[in-house]
Amino acid sequence: MNMHATVENTSDAMIHALIAAERRPSHLIGPALDYWVGKALGKPVMVVRHQREDGFFCVLKGLDGRIVGWSPSTDWSVGGPISQSAQIALEPVYRVEGCGVRKSLIGWAALHPKNHGGLLRYRGEGKDQLQAAMRALVSARYGDYVPTVDRA
20-39, pLDDT tens digit by residue? Predict the structure, then answer.
């Protein structure tokens, strides 16, 4: 497995830092998570600056050269079909007290069925179903760490 990636079409040090800052899929959020989902699926994705709240978002470059938004970790129309085709199972995670009494929903867990000759299933957790599912997908592709990112 190639554990080295290249950031293409960007010279912005802040974008590079955003993508490269957190290498554990279990901690990826927002555009960085969307970027690694795209890379895991072999999509031509990149993170660009924009006048949004966080200043960045992930885009997908089409074969015709058009740039479209890519946000599988927050948009069900994008992430839902990915989760379904990867057969990712979702389950709620509850805060438990005392003798195992469920008190409140604190997030979601996702299990990716990728199997390497055994019963290994990749797990992702998140504040909602899409975030958990996309983290599980990235973990199934890259393991405990996403590749090191170099600037092109």
Answer: 666 888 889 888 899 999 99
